[in-house]
What we know:
It is built from four helices and four strands, in the order βαβαββαα. It is α+β, with helices and mostly antiparallel strands. The model has no long low-confidence stretch (mean pLDDT 96). Residues 4-62 form the Glutaredoxin domain.
Amino acid sequence: MPVVEIYTQPGCPYCVRAVDLLRSKGVEMKEINAPRGTAERQEAIERSGGAQTVPQIFIGDQALGGCTELMGLDRAGKLDNLLGIN
């Protein structure tokens, strides 16, 4: 399985939904606490190409986007393949 990293912040309902979806698929992930104004948030912005919101989700070096994009990939049946789930 590829490395999955997700930048989140406390109290973010979209972060909770994204983490819950990944956990429901049995995906091990590195959750990075990235509240506004932190070095971790700046890292997420740079890695994502400028996206300011959380969550920011990465599979390997590929930026997937946020919760909306993650859910869309799942609905389209493409997420499992990206995660290496067959």
